[in-house]
Amino acid sequence: MRREEIIANTEAIVREAKALGADEAIANTVIGSYRQIRFSNDRIDIGLSWRDYSTSVMISWRRRVALTEIKDFRDAPGALRRLIGLAKISRENPGYGGVAKGRFEYAGPMADGAIERIEDPSEYIEEAIGAAKREAGEGAETGGILFTKYERVFLCSSEGPEGWDERSAIELSIRAFSQRDASGHGVECSNSLRDFDPARAGRKAGEIAKLAANPRAGRAGVYDVVLDPLFFGSLMGVYGSMGSAFHAMTRMSIFSDKLGERVAPDIVTIRDDPRSCSINCRAFDDEGVPVRETVFIERGILRTFFHNTSTAKAFGTETTGHAGIIVPMPWNLSMDPGDFGRDEMLEELRGGLYLTNTWYTRFHNYATGDFSTIPRDGIFLVEGGEVRESWKGIRVSDNALRILSSISAISKERQRVHWWLEADPPSLSPYVLIEGVRITEPD
User: Fold this and answer.
1) Each residue of 83-92: pLDDT tens digit?
2) Which residue ranges form the domains of the chain, and what is each CATH number?
3) How far is CA 158 from CA 203, 246, 397, in A?
């Protein structure tokens, strides 16, 4: 579908919604080319490629908000009539403050067209597998997924914003197994093919899998812990979600009453930068507001929440360009680098742990921050920089605010991480040293 057709059809949806009585309407059309290849036991299992388009539509009517997705432009008239009908039988949303108004200028797209033109993506998988086996040994087995996308996006709002964007991403997730219970996980993700290094993910997966051989049952206790970027990237996603003004308002956040207060040591600065080389790079948010860098936590102080127009009005401030029409969210988090190398941080451990990955992060209480998560892949007991034992079968049972406030060192090196199961949104994450983490045995 040509650009002119995308724009014309999207604008027609907004005009039709207004003609049917909507006070405000936003239509956001995404036309994408996608590819996914899955591999296991060192072989490609299946490869899929597809093209798709859809238009997300938001309308408001007398402070009632309704949203839908249209998969075919020909279905738009009927879908819009149903959407208006839904809004008219809905309750008024007292927190709705409207959407962004006016015209904006946007930075140009940062997409890399080479990703869409890849002829044989299997070569990247072979490169990653080879690197993993060189580290873990030829007897190691690997599995994972390679995913690529190239999207053309047009947003049209009845309130003025109109924007065109193009977005690209390539990401690889690979796990290597040196033994049945000894695995390592590596990821590589970028919006540009020139910055994509699949061997780097394979090397890391293989290195961890080799160290993880012959794991023993872990022991409960309180330990100083070094978290790998993949593990800490998962936690940054949690902190970013809790930085949403909507979650702060609904008490689903440890930060609800802490704006302007210290929540971490002064070595901690976390920001959201949607224009960096991330798989989530974009020019505007879902209201058509230009995105920009937002410092979330600055030298340990909670400086702002992530806002759309409605939450900004509730807090007496301005949108930060993070809509989500209902729930504003960060696009691409990063923690500022520290002064330590990874090996220096491991040398600080005296019977501490190095945790490389995690999953099943679950909160017992979002407001207080009590949570648990299950480390996976390499779990190592470290003494003075040397791995003494490989462990399995432990759980982190702690408090998210206490974890954040107990960061004592941050690495100079950082890694771009994204993993659909846990580490989302994507982030630029360092290694971190956290003091006094509570480790328990599985239930």
Assistant:
1) 999 999 999 9
2) 3-208 (3.30.2290.10), 215-443 (no CATH)
3) 50, 24, 48
